[in-house]
Amino acid sequence: MPSFSLVHLEFLGWAAMWTLGLSAIAFIGGGLVGFAVALMRISSVHWVRYAAIAYIQVVQGTPLLILLFLIYFGIAIVGFQEVPAIIAAGIGLTIYSSGFLAEIWRGCLQSVPKTQWEAAECLALTPWQRMTRVILPQAMRIATPPTVGFLVQIVKNTSLASVVGFVELAQAGKLINNSIFEPFTVFMVVAAIYFAICFPLSTWSRRLERKLNVSRR
Amino acid sequence: MSAVVKLSNVHKSFGTNKVLDGVSFEVGRGEVAAVIGQSGSGKSTALRCINALETIDGGTIDVCGHAVHDAKLDRRSLRRDVGIVFQSYNLFPHLTAEQNIMLAPSCVKKVSKSEARDLAHDVLRRVGLAEKAGHFPEQLSGGQQQRVAIARSLAMQPKLMLFDEVTSALDPQLTGEVLKVMEDLARGGMTMILVTHEMAFARKVASQVVYMHKGKVWETGPGSMLDSPKTAELADFVGSGL
Q1: Chain A closest CA to B73's CA: distance in Å?
Q2: Chain A residues within an 8 Å CB radius of B53
Q3: What SS3 class is residue B179?
């Protein structure tokens, strides 16, 4: 039986690119949907607000694994056979991250003092101008550290995409192990790669937090 | 003299707490009205209602031709005519003094950037802070921040300015510099309504003093009414203020 070699490492490196790609899809897609939901969550219209709360609760209360199954088989039931795994995984992770980012960003938007919203309103700014010129620049400072922190969660959770047949880092590790049966070696390498991706992110998040806290005083 | 602001029998409750209980008063063009009273007398709420920051439960409020009590009120057009300055300044912390002032003219009135900058420098000069244009709010003292906030309102060339306890967070010296700016404005003919605890300032600058007590206008008259109160409550209030 062959043992762990450069070929395997190369395969893992290729799979890690897919992990990064899937993370990017989840973050961008989840960010767009999540931002919309965050805005809905602070809307003054009751039903809009409750719809957002319901969405967040359902998404946060569903295991990502189940979410991925539902999407993968759900799309098939609706009539699209042969769903590419990346689409199913991309949609599942987008929904998952949107539920959490919405709640993180809702908190950040609301932590901009109410008096700032009032002051902008009293200067006759439109709701859009108020959001883009006054609230968002302040909320984004507050939002950056927890958002980067959540990025780490996204990267790690892409490993669940293997259940719908998507070959990313974790799935690649499983495949290699199936052929050479050196679980400890293989998964140590896999873990090391995950760590190499996540560690800089969480360090960056901590640094941002320190920096932004200092300048806010 | 035509009334710029007219409140008639205004009612407002927060839950079961009746804050305004039939408030009526008028302020004419170029007049300075000082609204005084104990904390909780409803004076700040009355001011916020004038700018539609609070909705009212009953009565009418007319401000510069806008029916503020009307559900179909165009709030943005009301706020182009009415400037407000708050106790806590509420400058935008991510913008410099100059940018704070330029924001509304360029967003709302669509004036060009260079015009907006000229305007900002002009109003900053009027509040005596021309040299602080590039400073961020946190680099300014409380009194300077409040003067920038006044300048920010002025830049929109409002027909009416509201001041909500604008000196309450300041020490006596800084209070003085802010009051001086307000006095200059009053002398320049600006119509102003101020909620204030500065009795001396009210006596000196106000053309009309409105004393509120328990959500009602208890007594109203010229500044000199503070020297000869007709009601026991105002006598008590003025007495305790000395």
Answers
A1: 13
A2: 118, 121-122
A3: helix
**Helix A6-41 to helix A85-110 angle, to the nearest 10 degrees?**
50
Q: Helix axis angle, B142-154 relative to B97-108, nearest 10°?
A: 20
- HSE-CB at A112 with a 13 A cutoff on CA atoms is 28
Structure-block tokens of residue B56? 């009212």
Residue B240: pLDDT band (50, 70, 90) is low
- Which of B51, B103, B107 is the closest to A122 by Cβ? B51
pLDDT per residue as tens digits for the range A15-56: 999 999 999 999 999 999 999 999 999 999 999 999 999 999
Strand positions, DSSP E, B71-207: 82-85, 160-164, 191-195
Whether B18 and B44 have beta carbons less than 8 Å apart is answered as no
Biggest alpha carbon–alpha carbon distance for chain B: 56
- Report chain B residues whose CB lies below 8 A from the CB of A138: 92-94
> Mean per-residue pLDDT for B77-91?
94
Q: Which two tokens stand for residue A78?
A: 């609706």
Cβ-contact B91, B141 below 8 angstroms: no
**Which of B75, B92, B107 comes nearest A116 by C-beta?**
B92
Between chains, do B75 and A121 touch, taking CB under 8 Å as contact?
yes
This complex has an ipTM of: 0.90
Residues of B in contact with A124 (CB under 8 A): 76-77, 79-80, 104, 108, 156
C-alpha distance from B223 to closest chain A C-alpha (Å): 29
Distance set, CA A192 to CA A11, A170, A197, A198 (Å): 15, 12, 9, 10
| Dist. CA A173–CA A161, nearest whole Å | 13
Closest CA to B154 of B104, B208, B218, B108: B104
Q: Mapping DSSP to helix (H, G, I), strand (E, B) and coil, where does residue B70 land?
A: coil
Prediction pTM value: 0.86
Query: Smallest CA–CA separation between A213 and chain B, in Å?
Result: 14
Chain B residues near residue A121 by CB distance under 8 angstroms: 53, 75, 79
DSSP letters for chain A: ---S-HHHHHHHHHHHHHHHHHHHHHHHHHHHHHHHHHHHHT-SSHHHHHHHHHHHHHHHTS-HHHHHHHHHHHHHHHT--S--HHHHHHHHHHHHHHHHHHHHHHHHHHTS-HHHHHHHHHTT--HHHIIIIIIHHHHHHHHHHHHHHHHHHHHHHGGGGGGGT--SHHHHHHHHHHHH--HHHHHHHHHHHHHHHHHHHHHHHHHHHHHHHHHH-
> Which chain A residues are within 8 Å of B103, Cβ to Cβ?
123, 125, 133-134
